[in-house]
């Protein structure tokens, strides 16, 4: 059972751990620009993820792989300028941390210095342990990401649910414990069985944020454009659409075009 929401002037990594202790669920959404970040922050969302999903949502790529470190820094800096309360976590993009812990640290430092972000997020467990340690040793907060890891999509070959089988589930639990012991302040679990996700959440002291991981975890994250219905071709089971912005915006654009073409816009009150 989640307790009543406590008012926090500013969300920090410690705040999230305290929220888990209190049984208070954590809300998390994505943002990639100033305007959206300002709205999300003003609505009281606890964590804003500047996700490498910007590669899909903002740039139209099929995967998250093409987005660069410079592009992530641009998006993160735009978000930071719109935020007063939320904790801003920034994805380190593919190819900027996996192979070399020194490069991982350089990438994390650039994100923190050039964007003003509050923390970084990386995908993977044991295989990126040294990169995680190097970033944490520099005093940079790290959020982990296990389960379906989109940066490894070509390895998996599919976006289906991960860790359904015992061997993979055991590895996920081991990786989650490893990330906690390394010093990560939270972990995202994506598209894993709800029972497994709940088991992980109960076994760790750090918050587990789920996306397609059931309700037994410590919080939830969705891509804002998906939950607003701005994207309409993406329909996973875990997605709840709170608005149909695709239809609303389309109708608004059509109405504007009609008003312009028939000379109704601008009217006498809308000109100088």
UniProtKB/TrEMBL annotation:
One function term, GO molecular function aspect: magnesium ion binding
Residues engaged in binding 3-methyl-2-oxobutanoate: 52-53, 91, 121
Residues that, per the record, bind Mg(2+): 52, 91, 123
InterPro entries in alphabetical order: Pantoate_hydroxy_MeTrfase (IPR003700), Pyrv/PenolPyrv_kinase-like_dom (IPR015813), Pyrv_kinase-like_dom_sf (IPR040442)
Active site positions, chain numbering: 190 (proton acceptor)
GO biological process, one term: pantothenate biosynthetic process
Cofactor descriptive note: Binds 1 Mg(2+) ion per subunit.
Record-linked CDD domains: KPHMT-like
Top-level taxon of origin: Bacteria
GO cellular component: cytoplasm
Alphabetical list of SUPFAM superfamilies matching this protein: Phosphoenolpyruvate/pyruvate domain
Gene3D superfamilies given in the database record: Phosphoenolpyruvate-binding domains (3.20.20.60)
Pathway assignment: Cofactor biosynthesis; (R)-pantothenate biosynthesis; (R)-pantoate from 3-methyl-2-oxobutanoate: step 1/2
Keywords linked to the UniProt accession: Cytoplasm, Magnesium, Metal-binding, Methyltransferase, Pantothenate biosynthesis, Transferase
Cofactor(s) the protein needs: Mg(2+)
Metal-binding in keyword set: yes
Enzyme Commission no: 2.1.2.11
Catalytic activities: (6R)-5,10-methylene-5,6,7,8-tetrahydrofolate + 3-methyl-2-oxobutanoate + H2O = 2-dehydropantoate + (6S)-5,6,7,8-tetrahydrofolate
Protein localization: Cytoplasm
Keyword Ligase on entry: no
Subunit architecture: Homodecamer; pentamer of dimers.
UniProt similarity note: Belongs to the PanB family.
Reported function: Catalyzes the reversible reaction in which hydroxymethyl group from 5,10-methylenetetrahydrofolate is transferred onto alpha-ketoisovalerate to form ketopantoate.
Protein name: 3-methyl-2-oxobutanoate hydroxymethyltransferase
UniProt organism field: Patiriisocius marinistellae
UniProt gene name: panB
């Amino acid at each position: 059972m989640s307790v009543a929401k406590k008012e926090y002037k500013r969300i920090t990594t410690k705040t999230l751990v305290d929220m888990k202790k209190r049984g208070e669920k954590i809300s998390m959404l994505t943002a990639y620009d100033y305007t959206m970040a300002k709205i999300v922050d003003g609505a009281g969302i606890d964590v804003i993820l500047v996700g490498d999903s910007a590669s899909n949502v903002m740039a139209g790529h099929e995967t998250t792989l093409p987005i660069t470190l410079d592009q992530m820094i641009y998006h993160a800096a735009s978000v930071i300028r719109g935020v007063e309360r939320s904790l801003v976590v920034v994805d380190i993009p593919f190819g900027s941390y996996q192979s070399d812990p020194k490069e991982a640290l350089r990438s994390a430092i650039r994100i923190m210095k050039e964007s003003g972000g509050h923390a970084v997020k990386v995908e993977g467990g044991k295989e990126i342990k040294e990169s995680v340690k190097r970033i944490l040793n520099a005093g940079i907060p790290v959020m982990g990401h296990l389960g379906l890891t989109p940066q490894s999509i070509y390895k998996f070959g599919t976006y289906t649910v991960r860790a359904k089988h015992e061997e993979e589930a055991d590895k996920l639990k081991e990786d989650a414990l490893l990330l906690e012991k390394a010093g990560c302040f939270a972990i995202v679990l994506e598209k894993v069985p709800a029972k497994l996700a709940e088991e992980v959440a109960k076994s760790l002291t750090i918050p587990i944020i789920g996306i397609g991981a059931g309700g037994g975890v410590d919080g939830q994250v969705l891509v804002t454009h998906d939950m607003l219905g701005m994207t309409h071709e993406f329909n996973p089971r875990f997605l709840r659409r709170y608005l149909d912005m695709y239809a609303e915006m389309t109708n608004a654009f059509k109405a504007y075009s009609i008003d312009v073409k028939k000379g109704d816009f601008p009217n006498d009150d809308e000109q100088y």
